[in-house]
Amino acid sequence: MRKIRTAIIGGAGYTGGELARLLVFHPDVDLVSIHSNSQKGKKIWEVHPDLLGDSELEFTDEVQTEGIDAVFLGLPHGETQRFLELHPFPEKTVIIDLSTDFRDESNGFVYGLPEVNSEKIKTAKRIANPGCFATAIQLGLAPSIAKGWARENIHVTGITGSTGAGKKLAETSHFSYRNNNISVYKLFTHQHLKEIKQTMVQLNPDFDQQILFVPYRGNFPRGIWITSYFPFDGELDEAVNVYQEFYQKSPFTFVSTQDIDLKQVVNTNKCVIYLQKEVGQLVIYSAIDNLLKGASGQAVQNFNLAFGLDEKTGLNLKSIAF
Ligand SMILES: NC(=O)c1ccc[n+]([C@@H]2O[C@H](COP(=O)([O-])OP(=O)(O)OC[C@H]3O[C@@H](n4cnc5c(N)ncnc54)[C@H](OP(=O)(O)O)[C@@H]3O)[C@@H](O)[C@H]2O)c1
C-alpha cells in the first residue's frame, strides 16, 4: 500500500515536534513536509535533537497544499483559521487541527475525542483535536454525565506541566518561576470549558451543571492530573463497572482498580482513570500526557481512524515509569 503523505505546520513547536517524533516512525506514513517560519532550511534533528539519526527532512517555509493526504496544524490559537484562509487545502485532504479554532462543532469540524466520536471521525476530513485539559476532564467525567449522575455543580482541579504552555518563553514558564513553584490561573474561566460542555451536552442533553475548574501550573514539564468530584448516591462498584464498560472498546483509556500516578502515562497516549467514593462524593482522577493523549498522540489516533488504520498504529509507546 502507498504510504500516506503527510505534512506538519508549526513543526518547530512542542506539539509539532511531538507529531514529528510519532510520524517519522509511523509505518503507514511518509512525512513529506514540515513547516516553520523560523527554522527554514534546518534539518529536523537540528531543531528536535532527539531525532538525530532518524530523519534528514528539512524545515521549509513553503506551504505545500497539493499532493498531501493529511496535514496536522500545530499553530497558536487564532492562527489556524487565518492560515487555512491563506492556504486552502483540497476538500479530500484530511486536516487535523490542534488549536481551539475549530473545536466548536458548528464550524464544520468533527470534534476529535475518539472515546465519544470515533464513528464520526472515521469519515471526517476536518478534525478538531481536543484541548489537553479538556481531554483529561472529559474522559474523567463522560461516563458519569452519560448516566446523569452529576446533579449538582462539578468540582474539578487540574495541574499541568510546563510544555502545556508552548515553546515560546513566558514569565510563568521561565525556569526561575516554574521550578519548585505552583500557581493558579484562569480560575473558573479556562477556555477549554466550552468544548467540555459541548461534549457533556452531546452525552446528555439535560446536562446544565457548572464545571467549577481550578487549573494549576505544575513544576514538571509534561503530564496532566485531574481530580473531579460531585455528590453521588450510588455504590463505588457500580461506578467502576459503568466506567469500565464505557471504555471497553477504547484502546487508550483504562479504568484502574488501584491507585494511579502521573508517570504511568507520561510519554504514552494513555488516559488512566481511578475512582473513589468518600463522604458521599464520587471522586474521579484522570491522568494523561498533555503532549500525547492531550495533543499529538490523540491527533495521530484521529489520523489512524480517518484513514481506516488500527487506532493504535504508531502509538505503542513506553511510559517513563520512574
Ligand atoms: N502544548 C500542549 O500541551 C498543547 C496541548 C493541546 C493543544 N495545544 C495547542 O496546539 C497548538 C500548538 O501548541 P504548541 O504548544 O505546539 O505551541 P508552540 O510550541 O508555541 O508552537 C507553535 C508553532 O507555531 C508556529 N507559528 C506561530 N505562528 C505561526 C503562523 N502565523 N504561521 C505559521 N506558523 C506559526 C511557530 O513556529 P515558527 O515561528 O517557526 O513558524 C511555533 O513553533 C496551540 O494552539 C495549542 O493551544 C497544545
TrEMBL record:
UniProt keyword annotations, A-Z: Amino-acid biosynthesis, Arginine biosynthesis, Cytoplasm, NADP, Oxidoreductase
Entry's localization field: Cytoplasm
Principal place of residence: cytoplasm
CDD domains: AGPR_1_C, AGPR_1_N
Major enzyme class: oxidoreductase
Cited SMART domains: Semialdhyde_dh
Catalytic activity as recorded in UniProt: N-acetyl-L-glutamate 5-semialdehyde + phosphate + NADP(+) = N-acetyl-L-glutamyl 5-phosphate + NADPH + H(+)
Pfam families (alphabetical): Semialdhyde_dh, Semialdhyde_dhC_1
Taxonomy, superkingdom: Bacteria
Pathway: Amino-acid biosynthesis; L-arginine biosynthesis; N(2)-acetyl-L-ornithine from L-glutamate: step 3/4
Active site per database record: 132
SUPFAM superfamilies per record: Glyceraldehyde-3-phosphate dehydrogenase-like, C-terminal domain, NAD(P)-binding Rossmann-fold domains
Residue span, Semialdehyde dehydrogenase NAD-binding domain: 5-124
GO cellular component terms listed in the entry, alphabetical order: cytoplasm
E.C. designation(s): 1.2.1.38
A GO BP annotation: L-arginine biosynthetic process
Entry's Gene Ontology molecular function annotations: N-acetyl-gamma-glutamyl-phosphate reductase activity; NAD binding; NADP+ binding
Function as written in the Swiss-Prot or TrEMBL entry: Catalyzes the NADPH-dependent reduction of N-acetyl-5-glutamyl phosphate to yield N-acetyl-L-glutamate 5-semialdehyde.
Family: Belongs to the NAGSA dehydrogenase family. Type 1 subfamily.
Listed name of the protein: N-acetyl-gamma-glutamyl-phosphate reductase
Organism: Algoriphagus hitonicola
Gene: argC
